Amino acid sequence: MSGHAPWTDPRLRAAWARADWGAILREYRRATGLTQRALEPLVGMPQPHISAIESGRRHVRTADVRQRITCGLQVPAELRAAGQHPAYATWDPDPELHERVARAHQAGRIDLATADRIGAVLARHRRDEDDDLGVVLWPVVRAQLDTVTRLLPGASGPVADRLLLLAAEHAHWLSWVAWQARQSAASLAWLDAAHGWAVDGGHPDMASWTYRVRAWYTLRRADPVRALRIAEAARTQPGLSPAAGAVAAHTAAMAAASVGERDRARRYADEALDLALRAPDEEARPGWLYWLTPARARLQAADTLYACRDWAGAAAGLREALAGLEGCPRDRAHYEARLADSLRRV
Question: How far apart are CA 294 and CA 315, in angstroms?
């Protein structure tokens, strides 16, 4: 196992973000399968001291012990930076990010190993947000974004485009977590950054996705006319993959239902379901659309019927699709509530 491999683990990264040294040791051992005795030579402490820190009977108070743990466990650079940079504790993006992006596409060669690792970590963090770890991991993801954008001035051509997509994915994640934390201004600022970087890097799926997310935010702010306009921009983005087209069409369907255009909403819902069922397996679709399974696509179609006040159709569709939804307790609770309400109204 390489030194950085355990640090892709979300629980370990969350423990680091909390600066919980006992949890860091416990989660590191869980991720690696090491015993406390095997940890001794890595951190330069005897097993009884390790046990006392893990149990909370002893606290890590000195810089020397913190440094021994940090170096011994090979904490990645972006995590070490996360606890030191004041910008990572704020919600808003800082101008330095945009300055780095502005210097992209210059001639240069870089090592993409760091970017590959950070991309894999972000893929796990997308799922972590579903488990309410988003706010805890905020400074970590913000530090990851800094690491990615520092590579841009030395990148060119397809490499720079790839890094811009990774930066946009991070900015979208930060936008979503900020929205969940009711930081709406910061959320929109991060979404603007994500959209600009997606366009600059030539990534229509991500550009469409940022429009789709903005439309969803706007629906939640009870402005369906504007949401429909934005969702149409997401839906009509040229060059979309089936998965990206599906989620854009679904959002347009929900917005159309919200303004009372039920026939239009049904057409978009049919379009969304057809595209979703034609989308490739998870490995071959955009990484942020990992959740778009056939069961979820059918739940979204039923949700559109609910929004159109077709209670019987919604109940039938929700009941059938819920049987195929695996995990995702938060989403299951949402759709089960929709089903119960539909059944009351039939």
Answer: 18
The DSSP annotation for 206-235 comes to HHHHHHHHHHHHHHHTT-HHHHHHHHHHHH
On whether the CB atoms of residues 248 and 212 are closer than 8 A, the answer is yes
Q: Is 311 exposed, middle or buried (0-12, 13-18, 19+ CB in 10 A)?
A: middle
Q: Spell out the residues 6+ positions from residue 75 whose beta carbon is closer than 8 angstroms to its own.
A: 7, 16
Strand ranges (E), 109-190? none
Structural tokens at position 91: 């919600």
Alpha-carbon 302 to chain mean position:
25
Are 269 and 254 spatial neighbours (Cβ–Cβ below 8 Å)?
no
Residue type, 167: A
In the block, tokens 């369907």 appear at 253
The 10s digit of each residue's pLDDT in 261-287 is 999 999 999 999 999 999 988 778 888
N residues, the chain: 346
Q: List alpha helices for 181-328, DSSP H.
A: 184-201, 204-220, 224-235, 242-258, 262-278, 294-307, 311-322
Q: What is the pLDDT of residues 106-156, one digit of tens each?
A: 544 566 677 777 787 787 777 665 555 667 788 888 888 888 888 888 777
Residues 6 or more apart whose CB falls under 8 angstroms from that of 6 comprise: 12, 28, 31, 32, 73
Which pTM was predicted?
Answer: 0.79
Q: Evaluate whether 162 touches 115 at the Cβ level (below 8 Å).
A: yes
Contact 240, 200 (CB under 8 A): no
Taking residue 241's Cβ as centre, other Cβ atoms within 10 Å add up to 18
